[in-house]
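pasting for the record
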Amino acid sequence: MSLPPWRPLLRGARQREGRSPQARWLQLATLGCDGAPRVRTLVFRGWAGPAELDLLTDSRSSKAGELSAEPRLELCWLLPKARSQFRLRGRRLELTPQEEQAAREQHWQQLNPGARALWGWPEPGAPFDANAAFPAELPDGTPLPACFTLLRIAVTQVELLELTGHPHQRRRWRADQHWAEERLNP
C-alpha cells in the first residue's frame, strides 16, 4: 500500500529537526471526561501503517479513560526548524487482544531502561508521596506492566501549515477524499 502524500512531507520536516527530541514530540488534544478540552505532549513511537501511528501512555492517566469514552482526537506536530505545523485528526483504534499484546511487547522491548522507568512510577496525577519510589531505570527483562498502554491512531485528515514565504501555505488531505491535496487560505 502506498503512503499518503503528506507522509513524505512530514518525514522531510522531521529530518530538518536533526537529532532534536522535538522531532518526536507532538501534542495530543482530547475531550476530557468533564467536557473540557485537554492537551498533552507525547512521544511519537512509529508508524503502524500508511496512516496509522503509535503513541504510548499509562492506562492510569486520565487520557486513557478520555480516549475510551471519546476516541476522536487531534495531534499537533510543530517542527520549528522546518517552520511547519502538521495537524493530524483521527481516532484511537481498537485492536484485537492479540494484536495489542504483540505491539505492546514490541514497543516495551524497544524502549531504553530510562524510558521504561516511567511505567514504574506511582499513578500519574495522584497526590505526590515523598516516600514513593520513582525508579530512574527499569532494566531489560523487566516484565511488561499492565499500565503500559498502546495508543494506535488512525489518521483521517491532515493539515499542513508552512510558516515560510508570504503568504504562508496551508494544505489539507482527507482519507475520505483518497488523500487528494486541497489548498486552503492560511
